[in-house]
């Protein structure tokens, strides 16, 4: 076996968007959808090449992310899933997630996706206020979110996740509370709530730099986060990861692969992989990616071998994002050394400043630690 585990998660990157959002710095491209047919053929070729090397793995999860994966036709999704099932073992309980933007899918398309085996839908809702959606450069309305959720339910989706962003320029706590209530009214199984990060070079950053918009208020954003923690707990959602809440049994299995620092394969332009003790990233631009695979080459742009000390630190950082925390027994089983022997100093320091709880068996973020997570994570990398 190539790693400690026999199962593998696969991330499929679809880097195409109808319009680029004002806050986005992901590897996505607007106006290149004409490349989609060649891109899907290249994806299938990469999956085939990966299967030649790692085909003895069984797939635990498949995640179509982007970009806007819902710009693919159902036939394109089917081609990729068929390629995966030929290259790897695909058990019947595999979690298959597809990210979709409201307004890019209708009832017919959703029924087709569900019939292909897509069993989890992640909708980029972002806000229940149309003015905030326009600020973010989203091309949908809240009405379209509501309609898409209803159509997804009618199509048979029983596992639905909604994404929202808080801490927007000029956003009040009251407006955030209204968004949360609107979200709960749709009864999703899963919610991802992210504080806005203003990335340099994005249109939103430029507007703030030019004083056309106020900069986000970090203290207010912290208050919004704390309100969400209380409100979602009262609504029966488990806060299983810093930015993620789920009803019982609906935590995202694919993302848990990342947070447990278990192996995953990324296919598509700019996708990252962590497998066989190595990490690598694919060529970023779709045209470069397609051309490499049309020449029969793997589209790898860079790769590195991960040293044990690095893997230990990154594993701690990722485990601490989870409510379950970093377990000393699990650490010893994975690395053959005691957690305290490797990170005793860091654990003691973080407990002293009130960011961590550590009882000798499990280390967990405190409520303050969840707000200041980056200060904790930096100690391990």
Lay out the secondary structure.
Elements: E1 7-14, E2 16-17, E3 29-30, H1 36-54, E4 58-66, H2 74-87, E5 95-100, H3 107-115, E6 120-126, H4 130-135, H5 142-154, E7 160-166, H6 173-185, E8 190-195, H7 203-209, H8 218-234, E9 238-241, E10 244-246, H9 253-259, E11 264-267, E12 272-275, E13 278-282, H10 286-294, E14 300-305, H11 308-319, E15 326-327, H12 328-335, H13 339-352, E16 356-358, E17 362-365, H14 367-371, H15 373-377
Parallel strand pairs: 1-4, 1-11, 2-3, 4-5, 5-6, 6-7, 7-8
Antiparallel strand pairs: 8-10, 9-10, 12-13, 13-14, 15-17, 16-17
Helix pairs in contact: 1-2, 1-10, 6-8
Q: In words, what does this structure look like?
A:
The chain has 381 residues and is α/β, with parallel strands linked by helices. It folds into 2 domains: 253 residues, TIM Barrel (Alpha-Beta Barrel), CATH 3.20.20; 71 residues, Arc Repressor Mutant, subunit A (Orthogonal Bundle). It is 41% helix and 22% strand. It has 15 helices and 17 strands. Strand 4, helix 2 and strand 5 form a beta-alpha-beta unit. The longest helix is centred in the N-terminal third of the chain and has 19 residues. The two termini are 28 Å apart. The model has no long low-confidence stretch (mean pLDDT 93).
